[in-house]
Amino acid sequence: MNAASLKTVLGSYPHTMALKDGSVNHAAVMLDFQEVSPVHKAFAPMVRHEAYDLCELAIVTALQAVAYDRPVVLLPVVVASRFQRGCLIAHGSRPIRPQDLPGKRVGVRAYTQTTGMWVRSHLVEDFGLDIGAIAWVTHDAAHVEQYTDPAFVHHDDGDKSLLDMLRDGDIDAAILGNDMPKGDEFRPVFDDANDRDLAWWRKHRFMPINHMVAASRTVCERNPAAIRAAYALLLEAADRMAGDPSGPLPFRFGIEGLRGPVEFTIDACMRQGLLPRRPTVDEVFAPARRILDHGSD
Fold first, then answer.
1. Beta-bridge partners for 188
2. Which residues contact 140 (CB under 8 A, 6 or more apart)?
3. What is the pTM for the complete model shown?
4. How far is CA 176 from the centre of its chain?
5. What is the rounded average pLDDT of the residues 23-34?
6. Domains (ranges, CATH) in the chain?
7. Cβ pair 111, 136 in contact under 8 A
8. Which one, of 267, 257, 248, 254, lies nearest residue 205 by Cα?
């Protein structure tokens, strides 16, 4: 039997490199990697047009895709997680405390950006802030085009980057992710971000989820065996990098292992007006369960 080829977008992480260099492989499937940088540029084409067969997907985008019945199947695979409080920054010349953010302007690439969702969730948890009392300034729309931002979100069509807006005082704080600036020009808004993040992990026992993996619904219907083989590959590659299972890990697998973290994330999204309705965890993973629990075609 010839191996099925899946057009695949995954970031380059320690736990995915064995897939990209071919040292972990499967006779039933070949992952045809497409390099998209930054990886979030693959999300809209995936949820709107099934542009890829297998694609990394931010969890907020994934949950919106489920709620709006977009043509993707969310697999129980987390490929990227991180602690988020340090992603909220201010200019060093204009520091601000988290509790002083109501009435201020905070920039974020998109209101639906997953890092932004987590930062807002932490502001609510830690300080009881009303996120609707903060003016959220964005550049990008949602990847899932059916979603409309709340009224307290303001879209900026200018050419300035978030960092330039912060330098010029157009915004009071900004949320960044993989594009965090180096040097001491900017400072975290949470002075004790690391301590708070570790305390959060000790309480919840998972790292805040950034990206999961989704498959094209069309491919799932046409070749579920290839999706099962791809899932096995993802799991095997991550197992090679397992590290200390009792500590924070950036990856996680399995429907039951993800039940609590995904339910927590759904609740956070609902509080922030990110979902039109509350999907259950069983609904989120029902299509994947049908594929992964079926051992033969």
1. 89
2. 109, 110, 113
3. 0.95
4. 13
5. 94
6. 4-82+208-292 (3.40.190.10), 85-203 (3.40.190)
7. yes
8. 248
